[in-house]
């Protein structure tokens, strides 16, 4: 049994009261690790450690912080396989993604963050008049609380912590209790790399440790990647101290296929590149609404069905596996409940719908859901409006560009969208008019570090970048 501990003030410690939580391997249903079930005392200790470390860390020259960030990148590179295997075991994200995509990508991201430290200390000057000079300077907030989800812990840990540290903040990371082993292991590896208290990691339930952290007066900035409901709860909980918030929340992303598109590329884009492989649709930007022009409906459904039939569900540690399990029993029950909801609402089951041992007989206790597609012309159905967060998509026909745009925007979410067309004018119109933080044209799920990533409407606001972790101060100097 693997035992993991919190990182607080440079020390690896159990929860103050000794409580633990079981971590379940979603492919087998078996407990494989124990993690701290932290509480208020642990939250207090983490904030105290981060506040104590802040003056020295923020006063460090920017290039000094860059040196530490490059050291962290080296840890990611040196321990890539170990970290990838831990994450795959913990949340079911397939090894071919955690090892070949996530770890190399995050190693690069820490290097990028090291290269952006100077952006966090740059200011502007304004000549206000004879003998009067205006200037601005950027300053870190102080203690940044980074709350990360279970679907990609290493990636979201990096996207938040790297930029927050680069800007001169000290950091507390609260990982999701369903899958936090990889982040806790990172804490072990980084304990001797970063100065004590600069990075702190505490695991536990949201109501036990997350809520005290969010409400703590000593926390100066909060960044969350999670559900819209969690974002709403954090907004209410943090209101007493008016903390600046960055939220990357849920999505119900449309993937729109026009008749002039490369249909083979589009079929790949709306299936394996969007919702059916890797993390079993447990992705905030998953293209869970597939809008298809009626003139190519049959051709696209045939292509999508053929691709989905080749998805290989098996042990996620097997490099030949292309889709893993649902992360937990609770999430499995949520996803499977929508299969019943869709049927009751009258959506047509095109393929899929199998669950549990019917999907992977060799691992009968795992949380398996087969790639599933429903079809309907009614975008008001719950399966079209609510985030399922699993390998379940809905195909919706349309006839005109205006109809496609209206259906796409008919959602409380606005995180991402895909457009498949060879018409450059149409592409520009949809980039402009889609109510979405990101629009991909003839591609999907590309999120390079050089571009912002965030949403609109119930999908959140702001994005994780160096300047998001700074505040701007103005000064006027009269001589």
UniProtKB/TrEMBL annotation:
Keyword annotations: Oxidoreductase
Active-site residues, record numbering mapped to chain: 248
Keyword flag NAD: no
Any one Gene Ontology molecular-function term assigned to this protein's record: betaine-aldehyde dehydrogenase (NAD+) activity
Enzyme nomenclature, EC number: 1.2.1.8
Protein family per UniProt: Belongs to the aldehyde dehydrogenase family.
This protein's name: Betaine-aldehyde dehydrogenase
Protein source organism: Streptosporangium roseum (strain ATCC 12428 / DSM 43021 / JCM 3005 / KCTC 9067 / NCIMB 10171 / NRRL 2505 / NI 9100)
């Amino acid at each position: 049994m693997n035992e993991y501990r919190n990182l607080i003030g440079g020390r690896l410690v159990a929860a103050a009261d000794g409580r633990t939580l079981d971590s379940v391997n979603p492919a087998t249903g078996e407990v494989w690790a124990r993690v701290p079930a932290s509480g208020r005392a642990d939250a207090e200790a983490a904030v105290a450690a981060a506040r104590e470390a802040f003056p020295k860390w923020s006063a460090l020259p920017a290039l000094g912080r860059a040196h530490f960030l490059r050291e962290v990148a080296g840890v990611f590179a040196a321990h890539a396989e170990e970290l990838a295997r831990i994450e795959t075991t913990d949340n079911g994200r397939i090894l071919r993604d955690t090892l070949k995509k996530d770890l190399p990508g995050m190693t690069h991201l820490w290097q990028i963050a090291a290269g952006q430290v100077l952006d966090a200390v740059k200011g502007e000057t304004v000549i206000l008049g004879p003998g009067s000079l205006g200037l601005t300077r950027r300053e870190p907030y102080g203690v940044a609380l980074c709350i990360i989800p279970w679907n990609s812990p290493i990636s979201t840990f990096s996207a938040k912590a790297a930029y927050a540290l680069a800007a001169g903040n000290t950091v507390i990371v609260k990982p999701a209790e369903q899958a936090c082993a990889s982040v806790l292991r990172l804490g072990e590896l980084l304990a001797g790399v970063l100065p004590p208290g600069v990075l702190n990691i505490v695991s536990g339930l949201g109501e036990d440790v997350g809520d005290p952290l969010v409400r703590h007066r000593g926390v100066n900035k909060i960044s969350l990647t999670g559900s819209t409901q969690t974002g709403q709860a954090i907004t209410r909980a943090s209101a007493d101290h008016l903390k600046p918030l960055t939220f990357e929340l849920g999505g119900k992303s449309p993937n729109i296929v026009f008749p002039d598109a490369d249909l083979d590329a589009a079929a790949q884009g709306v299936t394996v590149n969007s919702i059916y492989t890797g993390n079993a649709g447990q992705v905030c930007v998953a293209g869970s609404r597939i809008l298809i022009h009626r003139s190519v409906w049959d051709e696209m459904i045939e292509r999508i069905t053929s691709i989905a039939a080749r998805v290989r569900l098996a042990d996620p540690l097997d490099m030949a596996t292309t889709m893993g399990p649902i992360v937990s029993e609770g999430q499995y029950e949520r996803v499977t409940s929508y299969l019943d909801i869709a049927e009751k609402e009258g959506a047509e089951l095109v393929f899929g719908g199998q669950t549990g041992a019917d999907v992977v007989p060799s691992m009968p206790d795992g949380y398996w859901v087969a790639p599933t597609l429903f079809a309907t012309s009614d975008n008001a159905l719950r399966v079209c409006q609510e985030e399922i967060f699993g390998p379940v998509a809905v195909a919706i026909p349309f006839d005109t560009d205006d109809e496609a745009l209206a259906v796409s925007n008919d959602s409380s979410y606005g995180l991402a969208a895909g457009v498949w067309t060879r018409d450059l004018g149409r592409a520009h119109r949809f980039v402009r008019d889609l109510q979405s933080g990101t629009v991909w044209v003839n591609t999907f799920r590309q999120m390079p570090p050089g571009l912002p990533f965030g949403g609109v409407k119930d999908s959140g606001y702001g994005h994780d970048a160096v300047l998001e972790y700074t505040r701007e101060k103005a000064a006027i100097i009269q001589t």
